[in-house]
Write a structure and sequence with these properties.
The chain crosses the membrane at residues 20-37. The chain has 109 residues and is mostly helical. Helices cover 83% and strands 0% of the residues.
């Protein structure tokens, strides 16, 4: 199924401006509905304000957790690299050690 270009462009624009839409839409709904149903208007404003508050609080937590995960991944990568270097150094030094040992001739006796 193909999506029309204009609809695709509109959806892309909405995705780029999702925060603005999520804040403005409940306020527009509240402004339109306030004369007919004040309770629904108050609910729409509450949803908008609550959504912004939750987003702000969660974005700080998510940023902190992402930074912690990045640090752990960096540390893990550094440990893997160190382990690889040690493993290569051990193999290399072992082969060098066997090459440096002098051969002792056997005595015929």
């Amino acid at each position: 199924m193909r999506i029309p270009r204009r609809l695709n462009a509109a959806l892309d624009g909405a995705a780029r401006n999702a925060r603005v839409i999520l804040v403005v839409l409940p306020l527009v709904v509240a402004a339109v509905v306030v004369l007919w149903m004040p309770a629904l208007a108050a609910f729409a404003v509450g949803v908008g304000v609550g959504g912004v508050v939750v987003h702000v609080r969660m974005s700080a937590r998510v940023a902190r957790l992402r930074a912690e995960a990045d640090d752990l991944l960096r540390e893990n990568g550094a440990l893997r690299h160190e382990k690889t270097v040690i493993a290569k150094a051990t193999v290399t030094s072992g082969s060098v050690l066997t090459q440096k040992l002098p051969s002792i001739p056997e005595e015929d006796g």
